[in-house]
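Notebook, bench 3.
Goal today: get a predicted structure for AcrR family transcriptional regulator from Actinomadura algeriensis so we can plan the truncation constructs. The sequence was checked against the plasmid map this morning, with no discrepancies at the termini. Length recorded as 241 residues. Pasting the sequence as submitted so the record is complete.
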Amino acid sequence: MATRRDRLRAATVREISETARRILIEQGPDAVTLRAIAREMGMTAPALYRYFGSHGELLRHLIGEIFTELTAELMAATKAVPPDDMSAKFLEVARQFRRWARAHPREYALLFGVPVRGAGEQGETDFAQECARQFGWTFMSLFLELWKKRPFPVPADEEIPAALREQLARYRADLGVSLPLGVVLQFLKCWIRLQGAVSLEIFGHLEFALDDPEPMFEVMLAELGAILNLPYAPPRPPSGS
């Protein structure tokens, strides 16, 4: 059972995280400094070092918490559709990813503006890394389920360029899964297009041509569905429309 001191510490850590996120949303990532957080909380900056050893450690804790929130929303999206409807699962998770990003552009930029690199010592996985892996596994587990229930066309190993084949094999080993390399290739192709489309929109790189990127996003989803032998269905109109 946690002691009172432990509970107080946990509550303070939550307040620090909430304050950091509020500053992130209102002012952007550059404003999330220990001094700014301390000022908002009525503390001194040195006092924060009792909870986080550095500014980088605090940011990585915040990254981990946001990844956990996003993962929970994507998992909830998979449970909102019939369990055996793989097309609905794929489409709903992809659309929820975009909806979350549009609703949380500053948080999205913190997670996906730069890669989450390891900060643990001696090969250890830190909190942010682990939460990022859990997020990534949301999509990989969907692919594993799809491959098990209704396999889709994949290239044979020898059809994949050798330089790419070696990298896919290494990534597969890191994942600890037993899959044809072609499945791993299709997974990465789909993820690159999905996350690339969302990032281009969130970072404002589609405004030169599109006022509303959603129709283009749906075209992309239909094309990914064709690759995976999944029928495409347009999104349902909002209730009351």
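The two ends are 51 Å apart (CA to CA). The chain is about 65% helix and 0% strand.
Flagging this for group meeting.
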